Amino acid sequence: MQYDTDAIIVGGGFAGMTTARELTQRGIRATVVEARGRLGGRTWTRDTTLGRELDMGGTWVHWIQPHVWAEITRYGLGLIASPELDTAYWRSGGEVHTGTADTMLDLLDASMTEVLAEARRALPQPYDYFPLSDQIKALDQVSVAEKIAALDLEPQQRALLDGMWALNFSGDPARSGYTQALRWCALSGGDWKLMFEACATYKFASGTRSLLDAIAADATADIRLNTTVTSIDETDDGVTVTCGDGTQVRGKRVVVTAPLNILNSIDITPSLGHGVNGVAAEGQASGGVKVWVRVKGDVGKFAALADSDAVLNFAQYEYPLDGDSLIVAFGPRSGLIDLNDPRAVETELRKWRPDLEVVTVDAHDWTADPLSGETWPMLAPNQLDAVAHAARDTTRRIRLAGSDYARGWAGFIDGAIESGLHTARQIITEFESEN
User: Fold this and answer.
1) Which segments of 137-243 are extended strands (E)?
2) CATH number of the domain at 106-202, please?
3) Rounded to an integer, what is the distance from CA 15 to the centroid of its chain?
4) How many helices and strands in the chain, by DSSP H and E?
5) Which regions of 174-323 does DSSP assign to beta strands (E)?
């Protein structure tokens, strides 16, 4: 086969661009094929109708996430913190309760601690759980909702716990894999409050784009935007990637960073195996929404939480803006609300605070987006083994990379970078042994 490039990378998000940087810095030719008209995948910093740039997708990072923190250090990027919150509102049984933010966290503490008590024991080395032990396989059959149902909780505690996990998974706790929850907590040293801090406290001062642009600037890859991949054919000699416009790219390896829920949109021959195509057909757990909201006036630094039945089940104050307030809100199910309708969003926010007046909203529905099909990647029960097998398969010229397939912080920017680093290292080692 005559090669057009050494490695073809399908997708220009953090995993794809990290892979491209690592390969090209070692003299390996790489071509990035990206279906969108921009790089970044499910991270996207852009101007909004609210009056400032905001991250429409992945946002938060933390120093306990080693791979993204190394990149922050490498490029000298600054972080800012979400504000410390004064007040909390939480709904249970149709009633709204109010207290300090610490009061709400204290109500969650005992139940969150109990749900996650097995984290360190089950995953003493949370990056090294493969092959899955019998214990992990048994735990992977359980949903977070089943763990919650087994607890003896007061109604307020149950509503808060259910809502917290709907937020963490961006989805229904009944489809949320318990092992995914344990992985996050084990990576946080078994401390659920540190885990929660890592999820929603520190963000890039100039948006996630600042890190993506820095990585991309260090990659000398051929980047082809607005180019959809329709099929990948692997032979003993190499791989051929066919694009929607009929063009083909031939290489020695291909790295597929497409989100798990759209993996089957690419016709891969021979099929990937290990059951990962079945997982992709079933879909992983996340299917929620995120919306930025500008509300009139200074409404105070507050958080609001409701159970997984709510259309929007979490909201948090983020920024002041010209006398108004910017809030970010999440819901566990896409399709229940028009994210571009200020009155619809206002109706949901007023279930906590009837005084809120929405000025405008802005959002991108990643679940409805045919190029993502999901928000941040979160596995459902009985999916971990297949995904872990497929992500570690180095017998093929086709490799999987991305936050969906991360060994550690799956669901985060850190996981995407980690996966890209692993995949690039494998390919570099293979090419060195072949030459």
Assistant:
1) 202-204, 222-224, 229-234, 239-243
2) 3.90.660.10
3) 12
4) 14, 21
5) 202-204, 222-224, 229-234, 239-243, 248-251, 253-256, 267-269, 289-295, 302-305, 314-321
Mark residue 223 as left, alpha or beta (left: phi above 0; alpha: psi -120 to 50; beta: remaining).
beta
CATH superfamily of 7-42+207-284+372-434: FAD/NAD(P)-binding domain (3.50.50.60)
The DSSP call for residue 51 is S
Task: Sort strands 289-295 and 358-363 into parallel, antiparallel or unpaired.
Answer: antiparallel
Question: Mean pLDDT, consecutive 10-residue segments, the chain of 435 residues?
Answer: 96 98 98 98 97 97 98 98 96 96 96 97 97 97 98 96 98 98 98 96 97 98 98 97 97 98 98 96 98 98 98 98 98 97 98 98 98 98 98 97 98 98 98 89
First to last CA, the chain: 17
Structure tokens at 408: 């550690």
> Which residue type is seen at 222?
D
DSSP H or E run through 421? helix 413-434
Q: Which two tokens stand for residue 322?
A: 């010209």
pTM of the model: 0.97
Taking the CB of residue 149, how many other CB atoms lie within 10 A of it? 13
Tokens of 38: 């921009």
